[in-house]
Design goal:
This protein has 141 residues and is mostly beta strands. It has 2 helices and 11 strands, in the order αββββββαβββββ. The protein has one domain: Cupredoxins -  blue copper proteins (Immunoglobulin-like), CATH 2.60.40.420.
């Protein structure tokens, strides 16, 4: 019985609603033309790479590519809550996540803040099947 309950909890862990966030908007001084592109592929059932390494205070273009035929999401509410996001991209982040349909691509320009942040796909069972990762943002040098 305990094993069955643990399995159900693992399968539904990704289904919990994420916290509402209001992304901080990046100021006009941030030059996103100099942003380094970091591509993350969402597939069945993985993020590639599963560990995303960034530098705090540096502008990035986070390019999310759904390489599968079905939908996935990139959910990292703690990360998006403390990053400064380009004003034109803030609306793409709903409840700390970016939803993608199969084959769809989304790009978010942002400046991250130092820390380690979990990332998951909240579609039913995807996290339990391994669709998890983390974002590591190292402090500015």
């Amino acid at each position: 019985m305990r094993t069955a309950i643990a399995a159900i909890l693992a399968l539904t862990a990704g289904c919990t609603s994420t916290q509402a966030i209001e992304p901080r908007l990046a100021g006009t001084a941030v030059d996103f033309k100099q942003a380094q592109t970091v591509e993350v592929t969402l597939s069945n059932f993985a993020f590639t790479p599963s560990e995303i390494k960034l530098q705090a205070g540096k502008p990035y273009m986070l390019k999310l590519v759904d390489g599968a035929s079905g939908g996935h999401d990139f959910t990292a509410p703690a990360f998006f809550a403390v990053a400064s996001v380009a004003p034109d991209d803030a609306a793409k982040i709903a409840r700390g996540q970016i939803e993608l349909k199969g084959g769809e691509t989304a790009s978010i320009r942002l400046v991250p803040t130092a820390g380690e942040f979990p990332v998951t796909c909240t579609h039913f069972g995807h996290a339990a099947l391994g669709m998890t990762g983390k974002i590591i943002v190292e402090g500015a040098n």
